[in-house]
Every structure is written in C-alpha cells, then in structure tokens.
C-alpha cells in the first residue's frame, strides 16, 4: 500500500513538471487517500496485533 502511495506521488510530481495539472492533482489526491488508508491499517495492526506473541 505504501508502495502505491509513493508511485502515485512520483506520477503527480512528473505530471506537474510537464504541465499536466489535472493529472497531477488527481494522482496527488489518490496518493493522499492511499496514505491515510495505510496509516489507519498500520495503526490497527499495531493495536490488535499485540495479543499474538
């Protein structure tokens, strides 16, 4: 999931450099959503994963 976030962030940066504002904005939005999902899933795995040792 984090790899997808980084991929969309790189796509957004490259699109912004070449002047494709719409594509850059969409890719940045997708990267932001994926980052939030990753953070939530990571925190949930930390909280609920402690019971298994």
Q: What does this entry show, briefly?
A:
This protein is an all-alpha fold and 53 residues long.
Q: What keywords describe this structure?
A:
53 residues; mainly alpha; 83% helix
How would you characterize this protein structure?
The protein is mostly helical. The protein has two helices and no strands. The chain has helices at residues 2-17, 21-48. Helix 1 packs antiparallel against helix 2. The longest helix has 28 residues, at 21-48. It is rod-shaped and about 50 Å long. The protein starts with a helix and ends in a 5-residue tail after the last helix.
* Shape annotation: rod-shaped
What proportion of the residues is helical, as a percent range?
Answer: over 70%
Summing up helix and strand content along with how strands pair, one would put the structural category as mainly alpha
Query: Sheet with the most strands?
Result: none
Q: Which segments are poorly predicted (pLDDT under 50) over 5 or more consecutive residues? A: none
- Cα distance spanning the termini: 25 Å
